[in-house]
UniProtKB/TrEMBL annotation:
Organism: Evansella caseinilytica
Stated name of the protein: Transposase and inactivated derivatives
Domain Insertion element IS150 protein InsJ-like helix-turn-helix: 11-56
Family the entry assigns: Belongs to the IS150/IS1296 orfA family.
GO MF: sequence-specific DNA binding
Length: 146
């Protein structure tokens, strides 16, 4: 499912107008109702991949645990900006990098990305209202917060 509200044609239109602009970047972005970050990303993708870089990604991109750890460590070192790290490691977006940083900082750890999404939750049985109340009372009684 596409994650961008902007079509490839719109992105092309913006980049063509950007070459001819006669105003500040702030005014330009305001005119097209885009962020400077979006403009920067589109320029980078177009420069690197041409028109193909403006298309919506329809595939899941796997990353190794080692790559994730290296990217996060570079980010946390403060020696590189998020943009530089995304470019250096060919990560699909800054949001992906930020998710890795959040996982790393919350001690959840980083894992290899698999093409198949798996759920950490298993399908349980249905519970009755009384069972749910008893579960909550047991949790509160044992000072558990789950």
């Amino acid at each position: 499912m596409p994650n961008s509200k902007f079509s490839e044609a719109f992105k092309h239109e913006v980049l063509l107008a950007y070459e001819k602009r006669e105003c500040t970047i702030k005014a330009f972005c305001s005119k097209f109702q885009i962020t400077k970050d979006s403009l920067r990303e589109w320029l980078k993708q177009f420069e690197k991949y041409g028109s193909d870089g403006l298309q919506q990604s329809t595939t899941w991109k796997p990353y190794s645990k080692a790559l994730k750890e290296a990217a996060v460590k570079d980010f946390l070192s403060g020696d590189y900006s998020a943009y530089e790290i995304v470019s250096k490691y060919d990560i699909s977006s800054r949001t992906v990098l930020q998710g890795w940083v959040n996982a790393y900082n919350s001690y959840r750890g980083l894992k290899d990305t698999s093409k198949e999404r798996t759920s950490s939750m298993t399908k349980g049985r249905k519970t009755t209202w009384d069972e749910r109340i008893q579960i909550v009372l047991d949790c509160l009684g044992d000072r558990k917060d789950y």
